[in-house]
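User: Teach me something about this protein's shape.
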Amino acid sequence: MREFSVTSSLSSLSQFSSSIDNSNPNLNSNSPEQPSLFPPCVFLLLASPPFDHAPSSFVHTHEYRAFQFCTGPQCFEPRSLDVINIGPAFRGHYGAFSPNSRLPALDCGPRGSPMDDGGDERLAGMKQAAKDQRELDGCAEGFEVGRLSRMVGSDARSYTEGLEELYQKMLVKIQNLTSLVDESSAMVLQQENHNRKLKHKIFRSAAE
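Assistant: First, the predicted structure itself:
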């Protein structure tokens, strides 16, 4: 995807690499080792809390994601993230976070023809594809899971249209969930107002 291409490009630029000292006291001092260059490999997803005066709204324990980019296999590996915020008033709001993604894993390895696989392997592959499709429908309903493999690797640059479609379907899914939450919140508020009126009538009848 777009983040994959950007991170892969940045990791190949030497000006963003960090120098690591490889000096070893056991080696001859006349032939010191040259420092190694450590390419940038950390990709973070950090969400800002909504503006609200309530202190509890600034606790977002589910919106921190950290991934390490491995330059060899060209993939992201999820890593735990420890957020340390300076200040005694906010330090207790943060802790250790583990990344969690609902998107299925992207299988980009070379695959042969489905007819070449055995019956059991073909059935297992169909079950896994159906499972991945259900997981993807939870994030972007209507997007075929088989198209995800084209969004990484050498063909990703020429597949921007499919990427935009994936993002669009994800936004539609989020908008639908937001509408459901708004509707349920309105129903809850309506029920609370109705209960409040009933309590008021009961108290007024008891007072008379």
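Now, about its shape. The chain has a mean pLDDT of 67. The first helix runs from residue 2 to 11. If you'd like, I can walk through any region in more detail.
User: That's plenty for now, thanks!
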